Amino acid sequence: METAIKSIESVKSGKKSVSQITNSFLKKIKEEDSKIKSFLEVFEESALKKAEEIDAKISSGKTPGELAGAVFAIKDNMLYEGKEITCASKILKGHISSYNSTAVSKLLEKDAVIIG
Predict the structure, then answer these.
(1) Beta bridge partners of 96
(2) Using one digit for the tens of pLDDT, what is the confidence trace for 36-92?
């Protein structure tokens, strides 16, 4: 796996697409997470959608955000609109965030992909 900086550079240079990078992370998660259990939830669908949006922006000649190519995992206490937020607590199970936290908004604005 590449570092975030190398992934960003790969996108800027055209060597890799954001979708390719995102898919490599998803593949690694599928291979390893059953052993290490680092994710409560993987946002495969929304991560791939965001990656495709960024790739389309680049293809159309627009400048992507400075984090295009970086893939992030967020803690389960950071609000991500439409995603369950439990803070790893059973009492909050089923609570779906109606908005993004400031940190999540800033990542998305800069074209980062949030994977889980």
Answers:
(1) 84
(2) 999 999 999 999 999 999 999 999 999 999 999 999 999 999 999 999 999 989 999
Query: What's this model's pTM, rounded to 2 decimal places?
Result: 0.92
Residue 22 near residue 46 (C-beta atoms within 8 A): no
Cα-Cα-Cα-Cα dihedral sign, residues 19, 100, 88, 72: positive
What tokens appear for 109 in the block? 């604005």
Which structural domain range is residue 34 located in? 4-114
CA dist 86 → 20, 91, 97 (Å): 30, 8, 10
What single letter denotes the amino acid at residue 48?
Answer: L
The DSSP symbol for 65 reads P
* DSSP state string for 10-35: HHHHTSS-HHHHHHHHHHHHHHHHHH
Tracing tokens 């409560």 back to the chain, one arrives at 40
